Amino acid sequence: MTQQIPPDPDNTSKEGLRKLILRLPTAISEVVKDKTAQWTNSSKLREERLPLDWNEAAVNAVKAEVEDLLRRKSALGGIAEPWTEAELKLAEEITDATRKAEISNITRTEAYWQFFEQYPELHWAFLAHMVSRNAGWWMTDLKGSRLQNVFDEEGKQSFYRFFERSNALIFQDAFPQLLLYAKSREMGRSLFHLLPHFHVSRFMQPFWERFWIDRSSPLLTVGLIINEQNYIDKQVFRHPHYQISIGDFNESALIQLLGMNHIIFPLLKNSGDEDGLRECESAADGQDCPESGDVRRLAGRSVVNPVSLPARIALGKSLYAMLFGLRAVHSGAQRFAAGVPHTGSRADYWPDLFTANPAEALTPAQGSELAEGETLPGGQRLYSPKLTDVWGDAPYEPILREDWFKDPSALNGISAPQSPYLCDISREHRYGITKAALPEDAAD
């Protein structure tokens, strides 16, 4: 009987090192190619800037009013004066309208867009619409091809409840504020003294009162970004029930692998428009990628540290500056929002790579086709379901009604939003998605 000789650990390590060294030139070449394309494409998106009216005098006035709220003990509890019967009736109408629109990520996302169409001066509503689309895509990723064998069912449920609760809480807090503005417009007078009725932080009233005077959209948007991120910080990120999800978020390698760390704005090309957004080179061979409806480019940012409150606020301001400060991003994202209904499936923006029909999708065994590049063979796509097909209604833990605004540290986030230089994320996002569908290959 022939004796089996165990493998030499040193030789195995040497072989692994040899393979790694052989791959380095290709890997370095791809990184250089990707970064060069990202710089070039980002430059095209940044060619025409839109002015963001940031008024430092208004900023200082709002800061002073916010600080005054902290000093006045009378502002810490109750209301300054009783509400009238007519005001209570109006507030109940707003509560009912919010309840009807908050059923799911799909209805919330649509409500934001409809509101922005009617009141385009409320920039935050459009930003919220686009970010809410991303939340829907993250939710359906948990049931699609990409994560089919990565999480067990308990892990998928945990991540889903994390995303869903964050999305729902922001809507429950912010949408009544938007509706109260609409009622103020309708009645021709400020009604923002009613904000406490909806348990909105007293932090927001100076922002709305200033907006009512000067319609400074950027300042109000920054205020809403700070408010909403602080609101969900304790309700979700620091809530004991969601600590398992927080722990998973700290695993940066896993997040990168799953391609879930991008917030993207698909840009829909105007018919007949030759504005430089048509190129969508493949990271593998430099050729144009297949048709994805009319989406030619993805603007966006990577989520570097989602657990950090200041990092989330900075990200929100950066996304806002990109969405409203760069004409190509603003117009392309608006065309996408108006022309592509939100279903939660990534096929909404990349139908060449995703399908919401499981019968048309690749099986996990066929996923090795992705290893040769970022484009699938003709007619073969990954499964990305519609949200309503895979997730039902989810019960929530009780919502805390305590005002998050306790000290002046929130004022640190009030500064002029700045758009990033590298704002095109098309190649990076496609690469992350295709590698996420090949966990063995990515980890090799």
Give the secondary structure arrangement, pairings included.
Elements lengths: L8 H37 L10 H16 L13 H17 L3 H14 L4 H19 L11 H35 L17 H10 L2 H21 L5 H7 L2 H7 L3 E7 L26 E8 L6 H17 L1 H13 L14 E2 L26 E2 L3 H4 L35 H11 L2 H5 L1
Parallel strand pairs: 3-4
Antiparallel strand pairs: 1-2
Helix pairs in contact: 3-6, 4-5, 4-6, 5-6, 6-8, 7-8, 8-11, 11-12
Question: Can you walk me through this structure?
Answer:
- This is DUF2515 domain-containing protein.
- It comes from Paenibacillus lutimineralis.
- Pfam families: DUF2515.
- The chain has 444 residues and is mostly helical.
- The protein has one domain (9-443).
- It is built from 15 helices and four strands.
- It has helices at residues 9-45, 56-71, 85-101, 105-118, 123-141, 153-187, 205-214, 217-237, 243-249, 252-258, 309-325, 327-339, 387-390, 426-436, 439-443; strands spanning 262-268, 295-302, 354-355, 382-383.
- Strands 1-2 form a two-stranded antiparallel ribbon. A two-stranded parallel sheet has the order 3-4.
- Helix 4 (105-118) runs antiparallel to helix 5 (123-141) and helix 7 (205-214) packs antiparallel against helix 8 (217-237).
- The two termini are 35 Å apart.
- Mean pLDDT is 81; it is low at 274-293 and 439-444.
Which features characterize this protein?
444 residues; mainly alpha; disordered C terminus; 15 helices; two-stranded antiparallel ribbon; 4 strands; two-stranded parallel sheet
